Amino acid sequence: METSTEDGAPPDAAVDASVKTAMESATETVPTAIPPASLSPSRASDFMQCPLLYRFRVIDRLPEKPSEAATRGTLVHAVLERLFDAPAAERTAPRAKSLIPGQWDRLRETRPEVLELFADDPQGERLARWLGEAERLVERWFTLEDPSRLEPAERELFVEAELESGLRLRGIIDRVDVAPTGEVRIVDYKTGKAPRPEYSEGALFQMKFYALVVWRLKNVVPRRLQLVYLGSGEVLTYDPVLADLERIERKLLALWEAIRRATETGDWRPRPTKLCGWCDHQAHCPEFGGTPPPYPLPLPRRDTAAAGEGA
Ligand code: SF4
Question: Which end of the chain, N or C, is surrounded by fewer C-beta atoms within 10 Å?
Answer without folding.
Answer: N
